[in-house]
Write a structure and sequence with these properties.
By secondary structure, the protein is an alpha/beta fold. It has helices at 45-52, 67-71, 90-95, 111-120, 153-164, 174-188, 190-197, and strands at residues 29-34, 56-60, 77-81, 88-89, 102-108, 129-131. The protein is globular and about 50 Å long. This is tRNA-uridine aminocarboxypropyltransferase.
């Protein structure tokens, strides 16, 4: 029989994270495009990010029919948080402001699945790309990063907002994330964690 789950944070009721999830405003609007394979992942960090941000939305799928209309709405400066040859730093994009609020589109999935989302949604190709230069090291101790500087979706959103919204600080979004990681480590046992996840 499945364990009861919290309907909000999706964690087992005995490990609910809702008390740690903040309620943070932002001028920047965040749209997370989540690959369906991530929805039931035990460490669904994008879901935690959206729960903690008032001005954030999560769309799940592979092809987003509503995306071109959303992108066409006037009054915003929209960018895609994803590396690429022409990508600029988030800070540089933010400092070029002309008074319009920024909308940050964030693909959520493995690198392969995120690239698939970009391929299946050509409207994303027209967006200026931004990346996180000098981002803090990942706190995601349970996953081996495929490349240096890789962050979880939640960590990437926090780092981007800290640059775009300075001096505001979005570190409170990391509290449920840290608790989630600690809970997973406790469940597997310290010895197993050290054997499989420490360098």
């Amino acid at each position: 029989m499945p364990r009861p789950r919290c309907s909000r944070c999706k964690r087992p009721a005995s490990h609910c994270l809702c008390a740690l999830i903040p309620d943070l405003p932002s001028h920047t609007e965040v749209l997370v495009l989540q690959h369906p394979d991530e929805v039931d992942h035990a460490l669904n960090t994008a879901h935690l990010a959206v729960l903690g941000l008032r001005n954030a939305t999560l769309w799940v799928g592979e092809v987003f029919a509503a995306l071109p209309g959303w992108l066409a709405q006037p009054g915003y400066r929209t960018c895609l948080l994803f590396p690429g040859e022409q990508a600029r730093s988030v800070a540089a994009f933010g400092s070029d402001g002309d008074g319009r609020p920024v909308r940050l589109v964030v693909p959520d999935g493995t690198w392969r699945k995120a690239r698939k989302l970009l391929y299946l949604n050509p409207a994303l190709a027209d967006l200026p790309r931004v990346t996180l230069a000098d981002a803090p090291p990942s706190r995601y101790r349970l996953r081996k990063a495929p490349m240096e500087g890789s962050l979880s979706t939640l960590e990437a959103i926090v780092a981007a907002l800290n640059l775009l919204e300075a001096p505001a600080d979005y570190a409170a979004l990391l509290k449920p994330f840290d608790a989630l990681i600690e809970g997973q480590i406790a469940a597997m046992g310290e010895d197993t964690f050290r054997r499989n996840h420490l360098p």
